[in-house]
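Appendix B. Chain record.
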Amino acid sequence: MMGGIMNMELKLESEIIYENNLDTDKFARMLKDPSQCYKFYWLEAILHLTKDTVEEISFDAIINEMIYGAWYRDGA
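Structure tokens predicted for this chain:
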């Protein structure tokens, strides 16, 4: 629309309830010390799994993804 203001209303509907109870200061402190590198594989595994599914993620799935990331993804 030339010369005018376009009014668009965007609406997102979802049945997923999102709660952010993360203490970001503690989370940042946890990632600050790289001496225990498993936590980076843990975070990467969770990020990879959450982008592919909307279902609950099991502990076994996280561990399997961590192993896959450590053994296969890093070399790629």
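Further analysis of this model is presented in Appendix C.
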